[in-house]
Amino acid sequence: MNALLRITDLGVRFGTRDVLRDLSFEVKRGEIVALMGPSGVGKSTALRAVAALQPFSSGRIEVDGFTLAPGPVPPQSRLTPLRRQVGLVFQAHALFEHLSARDNVTLALRHVLGKSDADAESTARALLDSLDVGARADAWPRQLSGGEAQRVAIARALALDPALLLLDEPTAALDPTRRGALSATLKALAAGGRGLLVATHDAEFARGTADRVVALTTA
Amino acid sequence: MEDTPARRARHAVTVPYFEFREVLAVRPEDAGRWRSLADLRGRRVATLGATMAYDLLLAAKDSFGLVPVSYDDDVHPYTDLVAGRVDAVLLDHIIAKRRSSPSFVIQPQAVATGYYIGVLAKADSLLRDSVNVVLIAAMRDGTLEQIYRRWNVWDEGQGDLFRRVQGAQGQMVGAQHAAPLQIQAYLPSLARAAAITLLLSFVSMGIAVVVGLVLATARVYGGTVTRALATVYVEVVRGTPLLLQLFVIYYGLAGVVRLPAFLAAVLALGLNYAAYEAEIYRGALEAVAAAQLEAARTLGFSETQILRLVRGPQALRYALAPMTNDFVALLKDSSLVSVITVVELTKQTAIYATNVGSWIVAGLLCAVVYLAMSLPLARLARRFERRWSVT
After folding, report:
1. What is the pLDDT along chain A (219 residues), one digit of tens a residue?
2. 87-106 in chain A: CB under 8 A from chain B
3. Are A112 and B300 in contact (CB < 8 Å)?
4. How many CB atoms lie within 10 A of CB A115?
5. pTM metric for this prediction
6. Helices (H), B152-241
7. Distance from first CA to last CA of chain B, Å, rounded?
8. CB contact under 8 A, A98 and B301
9. CATH number of the domain located at residue range(s) A3-93+147-215 in this protein
10. ipTM higher than the 0.90 cut
11. Closest CB from A84, A90, A97 relative to B300
């Protein structure tokens, strides 16, 4: 089976410092890969490079036939195929503060996919329900608990139905019981055919959730 | 000073020492048709504010339907007459003579006659009596006539006045004016002036918001040149007095484009406040967390959509309270435009206060009206702040 995400010899350099060097791995559909390593080793940087938020200096990133090359991040207008295939859940959620949980999910459905309000609402409702936060649809981000906000952020990242979902330190703000639930949620998403790349320093969570672990070490 | 009932009531005044005539000045081509106030229906007639001439114009506004335009100095009425902004100027004949030029004609027929008097504090009536003695002596022995002749302001009217003053032995000789305006009669013009202040402020703020948004967007999203241009505009406007900008737009540009006073006023206020609004919006746009913008990018929004759907709405919440505060400041700064002949709340108050010879009632009324307009806005600003201070 072809890889959904293929990273080849990825290198990221901040000034004279190599943050990442010669990183290569793949993520297939239906697979959960954990990107592990101590803080500051470049896990988030790798995710940001895949999401085209961060330029890289060498190597290649391919997502389902779309290739990112070294150099500056291309303009947003040239990234449409990538944006449809990659969803990112930020460590601090970064939910849109001025919108309700529901509208955080509907915004891209309406303005990027051009769906009608009614279509967008029903898609959002289904996503929030499937993540067990349907009851919080009308809440503002600042009214949500850490776990709720994270599930709304996952729902938002899934709104465009991306094949690849990136999660940055998803257990950072969760208590142990929620950690188990999150693990189950991610497994269900993978079972549905998505590829998941999870940056985490939580070894126990990685062991219990991921199919494979890519370990980053300091250079 | 001009002899008025208000001055007589509140001060110790001397005998009149000079008789002046209120004369009309018009452009040469109009000399044949505009000879008196009655000929000037619907026309703009300029004069110095808070003077007998201004009172005459206010009265003529009711009886002849002309439009009085009040100035703070006696130079600009004549330059604006020549420029075509006003159709006639009514002022004391010695002022008209001093400003006289081939560009306008002084009508020979006087509109009214008035007197100059010396004004002393009410308590100084003894000193006033000594001044009277000196004045009357100077009239009798020809000293005053000599002085007037030397300055080229002597005419037969002065001789008649001197004889009357000496005959009356210092008794009342002077112009008879209408009694000072009563408060009830003043309220409608106060309301009208308040409406003008509000209209000025709202239109100016509208301009400030639109231009401010353009400037802020240019500073946040523009290339090097665009950013530099916007920055220069903001710094130049914030670094120079609003009063200077008003003069430049109204008088300075008159050679290129002759703006009506109200339009010049809203442009100057609007363009001035645009610089301040731009800084508020720029700060607000930059206060939106980078992660919010990145989250929007990963969802595939275009940069324009991100500004419209995410960054703009969030920035607006940071900007609303300072914007409301700015609007209150603009409401008060709008009083500056009286220098280019717009009669708004403060100017109207000054006119009334001079008319009745006291600032107490006029000033209090004016303050009450300003507070009635600004306090609700200040409360609104506090509500915005409370609502969105914690996110």
Report:
1. 578 999 999 999 988 888 899 999 999 999 999 999 888 888 999 999 999 999 999 999 999 989 999 999 999 999 999 999 999 999 989 999 999 999 999 999 999 999 999 999 999 999 999 999 999 999 999 999 988 999 999 999 999 999 999 999 998 878 888 888 899 999 999 999 999 999 998 899 999 999 999 998 875
2. 87-88, 90, 92, 94-98
3. yes
4. 18
5. 0.75
6. 156-168, 183-221, 224-239
7. 63
8. no
9. 3.40.50.300
10. yes
11. A84
